Amino acid sequence: MDDTVERDVASLAPVRPHIQVVPLAALPVVGAAVIFVALSIGFNWQWGLMFNHVVGGGLWTGIDLFVGLVIGPILGRLSIPARAEFAARFMPKMMIIMPTVVMMTLATGFQVARQAGNLAASSPNHAWLIVSFCVVGIMAVIALGVLEPANVAVLYEMNKVVPNGERIGRLMKRFIYTAGITGLMQVATLVIMTRLSSR
Amino acid sequence: MPPAHALDADRPYPPIGWLSSGALACVVVGGIILASYAPRTAPLPLATALLCVAAVLLGTAGALLAQLRAFSWKTFGNVFKWALLAYAITSGMIEFAFIHDHTRGSSLLIVTLMLIIFALSVPTTIAFTVARFADLD
After folding, report:
1. HSE of A134 in the Cβ direction (CA atoms, 13 Å)?
2. Which among A37, A129, A152 has the least Cβ separation from residue B126?
3. How confident is the model at residue B36 (pLDDT cuts 50, 70, 90)?
4. Which of A55, A84, A197, B83 has a CA between 20 and 30 Å from the CA of residue A22?
């Protein structure tokens, strides 16, 4: 069975181009985002802070929900060669998009909360804010400690002359489960953030 | 004849990834405690204790890593350096935000040390996970 899977994956090798783990062409966009965030914080630029937080947070939440609850279950039902083909095109993009939107959201979110007075212990929103820190903290540990290493390992494995299909399948399972967990946790983020902004 | 990848079949390794992820979890919890008290001064003993636990976990991971012989150090180094660059930039951005928010003294020192552990633990986890499955040098 495993040998069949391995042969299937190996048969993709001749037609599969070398995978660029981090798409270098997208790095200028990341650089621009970093500069935009730094300037927004440095100059207390209210529109810039809000733009980065809302756009970054909206994309982060939306992508996590979509990947975790829509793409993940579909991937789980695909054959391992099909998963591998999808991952080869999908994961490098996620390597650029996710850290960027997370950086935009978190770096400016703290400043937005400070300016809005939500960090003050007397604020009625303070408790909700702490809950959101905890949700983000759990998501960060799952994403950085489990999901991202698995992503990178899959891409490296697929760049081998003879990729190990069983190993790719196992690592992708990690991706599917952790993406599902972070997707569900984003529902909590939606509740907290809409609650904060409506008070 | 065994399949080509059998030579680099999954080898048993010490729990280096779990230790460095544990260090990450400690500094994340410490960061939440510090941030939840801002702009007041957070109780530093708890944050310091978490920082120490994180340092011990990461140090243990580093020590175990250094003892590995059958390991793709080339792959580890290649992944580690680029991940370190990415997470050093992220840590720098967070440090900048704390300094901009007038965090000073002991609090700033603890935040800085936590960010250093953050910037080292994530690349360690990523690079180890990749290198453990890579062909030996």
Report:
1. 8
2. A152
3. confident
4. A55
Q: Which of A6, A133, A156 sits opposite B32 (nearest CB)?
A: A133
Within 10 angstroms of residue B26's Cβ, the number of other Cβ atoms is 25
Contact check, Cβ <8 Å, A107/B10? no
ipTM above 0.90, yes or no: no
The beta-carbon neighbor of B93 closest among A103, A148, A161 is A103
Q: What is the maximum alpha-carbon separation in chain B? A: 67
Nearest CA in chain B to A168: B133
Q: What are the CA-CA distances from residue A152 to residues A34, B13, B33 (Å)?
A: 22, 19, 31
**Does residue B39 have a cis peptide bond before it, meaning omega lies within 30 degrees of 0?**
yes
Both tokens of residue B37? 């008290």
Task: For chain A, say whether B59 makes contact (Cβ under 8 Å).
Answer: no
Amino acid at A192: I
Q: Which chain A residue shows the shortest CA-CA distance from B2?
A: A3
